[in-house]
Design brief:
There is one protein chain. This protein has 223 residues and is of the alpha/beta class. It has two domains: 148 residues, Rossmann fold (3-Layer(aba) Sandwich); 68 residues. It contains nine helices and eight strands. The strands form two sheets. It has a six-stranded parallel sheet with strand order 5-4-1-6-7-8, sandwiched between helices. Helix 1 packs across helix 3, helix 3 packs parallel to helix 5 and helix 6 crosses helix 7. The structure holds magnesium ion (MG).
Length: 223
């Protein structure tokens, strides 16, 4: 089997800011923070790492209880922000997922900083939820490499121990770095916040403008 692990934001979908807006709404509701700091970076990071850093920046104790309250509030606000922000599935994504479905030995999974329920909610919004059977998520880990390890373990489990290769597809330098950390083939796609130059500097195995032209990618999977 060959696992193909997808990042969500900037790779599969552009939520039009729904994620950040739901973060902001949760911080306003729970901690009375009128505006979340622009200095805290979102792209390529786990929800947990972002939320805990925002708490620290805004003088909120980054406790387990605050994290629990945040997740509950954030998921509630996603219900509103996702339909409001009118995001979209990124170019080539549906075609690529369709092709992977025809490859018997391909195992599409997720490798995302989103909390599991947030990932499911976002993918449901765009009709992609049933495309992935497993993944690594941002509920527990701050570090994306730890999420990659979780996704790789899940891939091995779903491949029943017969895993011949892994690919990670993502839109940030962090995606390339975490692909390296699990020895995966790293595909960088410039549909998110990073430029081609930034992605190139991270040294991916393959750099794409979007997922429309996936000949090289599919050749790697074995077509
Ligand atoms: Mg991303």
């Amino acid at each position: 089997m060959y696992s193909v692990l997808f990042d969500i934001d900037g790779t599969l979908v552009d939520t039009g800011g729904a994620g950040r807006n739901a973060f902001a709404a949760a911080f306003a509701e729970l901690f009375d923070i009128a505006e979340i700091s622009r200095d805290v970076r979102f792209a390529g990071r786990s929800d947990r790492a972002i939320a805990l850093e925002l708490m620290e920046v805004h003088g909120v104790e980054p406790s387990a209880e605050h994290w629990r309250q945040f997740v509950e509030s954030y998921l509630g606000h996603l219900e509103t922000t996702l339909p409001l922000c009118q995001g979209r599935i990124l170019p080539g994504v549906v075609g690529l997922l369709d092709q992977l479905q025809t490859i018997e030995h391909a195992l599409p999974g997720l490798l995302t900083g989103n909390v599991r329920a947030g990932a499911a909610r976002k993918l449901t919004q765009y009709g992609l939820a049933d495309r992935f059977k497993f993944g690594g998520f941002g509920d527990i880990w701050n570090d994306r490499n730890a999420i990659a390890k979780e996704a790789a373990e899940q891939a091995r489990f779903h491949a029943r121990g017969v895993l011949n290769g892994t690919m990670v597809i993502g839109d940030t330098v962090c995606d390339v770095t975490c692909a390296r950390s699990i020895g995966a083939f790293a595909v960088a796609v410039a549909t998110g916040g990073s430029t081609r130059e930034e992605l190139l500097a991270a040294g991916p195995d393959l750099l794409l403008d979007d997922l429309s032209d996936t000949e090289t990618l599919l050749a790697e999977v074995g077509i």
